[in-house]
Amino acid sequence: MLFDQIYRELELTERHLIVLRKVIEEGPIGILKLSDETGMPTHKVRYSLRVLEQEHLIKPSSHGAVAGENTKKFLEEFDGQISDIIEKASHIQQIRNSI
User: Fold this and answer.
1) 50-57 long-range contacts, Cβ below 8 Å, gap at least 24?
2) pLDDT in tens, the chain (99 residues)
């Protein structure tokens, strides 16, 4: 349907953020421990780690993932980005209400 892709992306983003939070709180942390603590299958944790590493939000170490060089900036900008998304959703709702 029209919103399926958006919903999937939000779920994926939620998963990435859960993994990022664990890395920040408990890093260095490995895939198996992340999987155990989040309840996510290891293949999903591995994918989230790969995405977070590509964004430089985490980096690998010999003992597991640790926070990366862009983590602080990402967290500082997060509220503004979420506000922009909420504003866009509100505008979409206004369009719907006008129909």
Assistant:
1) 51/16, 52/16, 52/19, 52/20, 52/23, 57/20
2) 889 999 999 999 999 999 999 999 999 999 999 999 999 999 999 999 999 999 999 999 999 999 999 999 999 999 999 999 999 999 999 999 999
